[in-house]
Amino acid sequence: MATEVSKSDKNSPESTSKEVLDGVVGYDFSDIRPFHDEEVRGVIEELCKVPYFLGLLNKIFPSVPREQIVAKLKRVNTIKEFQEGFIIPFLTNLAGTTTDGITASGTEHLDPAGGYLFLSNHRDIILDSAFMNVKLNEVGLTTTEIAIGDNLLIYDWITDLVKLNKSFVVKRGLPGRQQMVASENLSAYIRDSIVNRHQNIWLAQREGRAKDGDDRTQTSVLKMLNLTGSGSTIDKFRDLNIVPVSITYEYDPCDYLKAYQYQLKRDNADYHKSKSEDLMHMSTGLYGRKGHVHFAFGEPINPMLGQIAELNRNAQITLISEMIDRQIHLNYVLWPCNYIAYDEFLNTNKYADRYEESQKAEFNEYIDEHIHRLDGCDEEFVRREILRGYANPLINQEKAIEG
After folding, report:
1. Is there a contact between 290 and 98 (Cβ–Cβ < 8 Å)?
2. pTM over the 0.90 mark
3. For the chain, which has fewer Cβ within 10 Å, the N-terminal or C-terminal residue?
4. How far does Cα 26 stand from its chain's mean position?
5. Which H or E run contains 156?
């Protein structure tokens, strides 16, 4: 990493002071937190020496000479300048070429002063939080700090880049005791950000994307959040000011890749996605067709927490996960492809009045085109898994409406 303190510098007065600033009593956030404004210039200088990063600049700003982009980058002094000068323009252009529009609802109920934990379903590795930040910025709300798993930080320059964009690192796959320590440190970081810095945070409701569209909040995520803080279990959740966010894409560019993973896992129980596959999923998600995209910001769950105050901790966490899931499921904005997939997946015509036959034909052609990108796939199996991914949001919304 470009700006981390080396072991030889750990005992210097300057590094000791920085470690105090990077944590709260008993915790050190220096290796997981985003960069601070005073670190920006140094990080950018190092990034501009990396050929892969320079190649990325050419790809995302193809009509601008590299020298011009680099010169502009080197004038950036703050995270806000970096986001508003580079990240948001790139995402706005990307939305214009790969979506039919990004919309949001519920932002009018959010306090501009911030301090929310936006807990959402997870569809795209990069764009869930990125597009959400664009919508928050448009209405004058503070962009979020973004949780990102260290499994995606394949190169040091990627780590530097995401930390410039207000990302903090979620450590995964550590041995038992080390993982517990890392989880507690992560919990403390999120809590400190929301309670003391009034910084909005984005966190997925589960580890990894729900590849089959069946969005469920993992209780392990809630237990991690509750590892730190003071007072009762309910008091500690109240401090986090959790707002469920429902994200829906009309088309998921990675739908066929996610479905194919189920086949690979079916055929080989030891299959694990490689780093090169992660990169392919990120690239496909960025540049693939998405149709309409909607972010529905729900209501803070705090007013509902009093209803479960007398239950035991495990029951409270289970019910909180259900509260979050219910809002996410109810707030889905669905499109014809969801209704078509539901009818085909369940072999019914229940929602035939929600789409035209021409739309059904177009959606099936879309699925066929995606399946034909795969070599050696079980077409019938993969098709059914793609349909499942589009049908599950509607299945879950039905259940949420029924109560």
Report:
1. yes
2. yes
3. C
4. 28
5. helix 156-164
**Domains of the chain: residue spans and CATH:** 7-249+296-330 (3.40.1130), 254-287+334-403 (no CATH)
- Say if residue 294's pLDDT is above 60: yes
Q: Would you state the structure tokens that stand for residue 16, as one six-digit string?
A: 């000791």
pLDDT at 275: 85
The number of angstroms, rounded, from the C-alpha of 269 to the middle of its chain's C-alpha atoms is: 27
User: Residue 225, Cα to own-chain centre: how many angstroms?
Assistant: 17
Q: What is the pLDDT of residues 145-195, one digit of tens each?
A: 999 999 999 999 999 999 999 999 999 999 999 999 999 999 999 999 999
- In angstroms, rounded to a whole number, what is the distance separating the alpha carbons of residues 334 and 392? 11
Between CA 258 and CA 387 the distance in angstroms is: 12
Average pLDDT value over all residues in the chain: 93
Express each pLDDT in 62-83 by its tens digit.
999 999 999 999 999 999 999 9
